[in-house]
């Protein structure tokens, strides 16, 4: 088995009680089947407490958030009582993994960190050198990539090379990426893009306020090229392969990566805004299947593709 990950990935460490947008607040936390079984058997007061704070069946169980939308196991210091008492192995799959994402191919798993976590966001956006993918191989698997996977990997790697080609401005790189994939973005003024985002499901009032405030401009990117490169690379790495299925690639991932980078850049009034704006964009769009499907579907249709 091979594992692929961005070079910054090993530096990630959850900042727990110092996190201003703790992922244990405001998100529904689903409990996977196997962990649900462990919680049913957990002994002592912690077992009772966990079971009191769960609802749903073994197949769709989740924690009951309190009136402030906090996970019932999150203490007043912003730490998880379950980890403190039983260790990280007692966590359900989502809590163990977050903010990591994974994409599995025949011979490998690609891993990354999601921008919706403020610490991952800081790490990703603060990279000064072009992102490199690292590979670890335990040599135990004989599985090989299919021809389709090989093709999409090589196309994705070509797009990443363009995205990190610093001899060109970041705008030229975005154009080249779209040309390379023979994709285009609908030619809409930013105001209209903001209105499209305002029509999608929204979680955070700050996101709504930001979209309404920025929809009338000024329409210029206030963040530097390296930050935009980091965003572009992040979206391509995360979404391109996920969108490729054997023999049935549907287009839109390159356009989505370019569009997401441009929207985030235009929503920032100054460089330091990018951490909050990118985190919110990720939480509102990337982490909502419904919103992601709506935007990807629109770009897919515009580029003449067919979504399954
Ligand atoms: S959002 Fe990130 S840094 Fe904050 S608590 Fe969750 S994993 Fe930790």
User: Cα distance, first to last residue?
Assistant: 29 Å
- Helix count from the secondary structure assignment: 13
Nearest-integer average pLDDT: 91
Strand order of the largest sheet: 4-5-1-6
Radius of gyration: 20 Å
Write down the overall geometry: globular
**Overall strand count:** 6
Attached small molecules? iron/sulfur cluster
Structural class: alpha+beta
Helix content bin: 40-55%
Q: Report the order of strands and helices.
A: EHHEEHHEEHEHHHHHHHH
Pick out the low-confidence regions. none
Query: How many domains would you count in the coordinates?
Result: 2
Mind summarizing the main beta sheet?
4 strands, mixed
Beta-strand percentage range: 5-15%
Describe the structure.
A hairpin with a 2-residue loop joins strand 4 and strand 5 (about 110-115). Strands 4-5-1-6 form a four-stranded mixed sheet. A two-stranded antiparallel ribbon has the order 2-3. The chain is about 45% helix and about 10% strand. The longest helix has 17 residues, at about 145-165. It is built from 13 helices and six strands. The protein has two domains: about 25-95, no CATH class; about 145-300, no CATH class. The two termini are about 30 Å apart. It has about 300 residues and is an alpha+beta fold. Helix 5 (about 120-125) crosses helix 12.
Considering the chains and any ligands shown, give keywords for the structure:
two-stranded antiparallel sheet, 6 strands, binds iron/sulfur cluster
């Amino acid at each position: 088995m091979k594992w692929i990950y961005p070079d910054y990935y090993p530096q990630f460490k959850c900042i727990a009680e110092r996190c201003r947008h703790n992922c244990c607040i405001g998100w529904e936390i689903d409990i996977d089947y196997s962990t649900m079984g462990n919680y049913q058997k957990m002994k002592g007061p912690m077992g009772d407490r966990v079971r009191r704070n769960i609802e749903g069946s073994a197949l769709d169980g989740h924690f009951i958030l309190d009136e402030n939308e906090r996970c019932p196991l999150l203490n007043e210091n912003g730490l998880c009582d379950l980890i403190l008492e039983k260790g990280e192995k007692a966590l359900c799959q989502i809590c163990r993994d977050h903010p990591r994402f994974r994409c599995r191919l025949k011979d490998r798993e690609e891993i990354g960190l999601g921008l919706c976590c403020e610490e991952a966001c800081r790490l990703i956006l603060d990279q000064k050198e072009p992102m490199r993918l690292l590979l670890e191989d335990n040599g135990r698997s004989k599985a090989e990539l299919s021809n389709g996977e090989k093709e999409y990997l090589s196309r994705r790697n070509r797009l990443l090379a363009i995205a990190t080609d610093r001899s060109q401005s970041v705008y030229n790189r975005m154009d080249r990426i779209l040309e390379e994939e023979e994709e285009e973005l609908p030619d809409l003024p930013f105001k209209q893009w903001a209105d499209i985002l305002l029509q999608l499901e929204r979680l955070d009032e700050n996101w709504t306020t930001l979209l309404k405030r920025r929809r009338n401009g000024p329409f210029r990117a206030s963040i530097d090229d390296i930050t935009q490169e980091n965003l572009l690379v992040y979206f391509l790495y995360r979404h391109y392969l996920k969108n490729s299925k054997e023999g049935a690639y549907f287009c839109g991932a390159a356009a989505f990566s370019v569009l997401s980078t441009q929207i985030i850049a235009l929503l920032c009034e100054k460089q330091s805004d990018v951490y909050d704006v990118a985190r919110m964009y990720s939480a509102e769009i990337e982490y909502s299947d419904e919103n992601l499907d709506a935007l990807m579907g629109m770009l897919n249709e515009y580029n003449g593709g067919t979504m399954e």
